[in-house]
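Sync notes, pocket subgroup
Present: LS, DG
LS reminded everyone that the earlier model was apo-only. Rerun requested with coenzyme A included. Inputs:
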Amino acid sequence: MSDLRPDLPPVDDLAALVDACVAADGVSPFGGHVLESVGLDGDLRYLTATEGGALVAVAVLPAGDPAELAVTPSHRRRGLGDRLLRAVLDTGPAVWAHGDLPAARALAARHGLRETRELVQMRRPAAAPTPRPELPDGVRIRTFVPGADDAAFLAVNARAFSWHPEQGRLDQAGLDRELAQDWFDPAGFFLAVDADDRLLGYHWTKVHPTDPTPADATAPAGPLGEIYVLGVDPESPVRGLGTPLSLAGLEYLRARGPAQVMLYVEGDNTRALRLYERLGFTRFLTDVVYAR
Ligand SMILES: CC(C)(COP(=O)(O)OP(=O)(O)OC[C@H]1O[C@@H](n2cnc3c(N)ncnc32)[C@H](O)[C@@H]1OP(=O)(O)O)[C@@H](O)C(=O)NCCC(=O)NCCS
């Protein structure tokens, strides 16, 4: 077994390690944003271990955010996760445990870490019945126009998510990266605007070509719809926009054909959890941040 090295993992080797983890654990060890950024984001650092040239363990260390780490299933219970986590904790205080698996919980406890954040994935069948969206007077829903709506969207997003560790920091460069992704479709990005076309809230949907976190190996591979970001301006004079915006997006996703729709919500965001439960979503998976 090699020492831990600060090397960028080859993309194909990383993909093979992730696939093996998904097959064994039913969940990817790395968040989608992290996987999309490997090799592209100069702020990411890495720790890798190889055996006979094959990648067997990897940690991804984003500057200022919790690290993510995984050991390939064939090399577990040999002390590798322990070494990797020790090295990770030398560089930062926190680590993600996607799916909060028993092994991660045990490893975190052994290092004296405690749960500091819970991110819940909820799902519902895309075809489940939903009421017709009812809009407050003077409000209409239209779709996002790239370029023209960027600044208004970024301002409302920053206010709606000022408390959120990631979403509130989205800037023009980050938005440009998202708009350039293959999955981006302006027809699935809904804006609630007033009579003067002032933005009050939005619902950005996404269709994943394959399910990034299948329940198990027999689950349908995809596609999977997502309530990607739903936000209402805290300064909006009109209330009650969350439900009609959600419904507009759900209608669009149903027409696009995925069997299921998922979303992520912070475990302590009780208002959002209540909204989604009312719309028929139930808890599917929990990701946890463990920290000192
Ligand atoms: C969590 C993970 C990194 C552990 O890797 P590993 O190489 O198997 O861990 P180690 O062999 O170093 O185990 C260290 C200790 O963690 C605990 N542990 C690890 N796996 C365990 C399991 N399946 N059940 C119970 N305890 C476990 C034990 O205390 C173990 O010590 P022991 O083997 O002496 O009993 C690995 O299971 C993994 O990649 N999981 C998916 C990704 C993930 O959850 N990452 C988040 C990590 S916080």
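DG: The chain has two domains: 11-112, 122-287.
LS: Residues 11-25 form the longest helix (15 residues).
Action: DG to write up.
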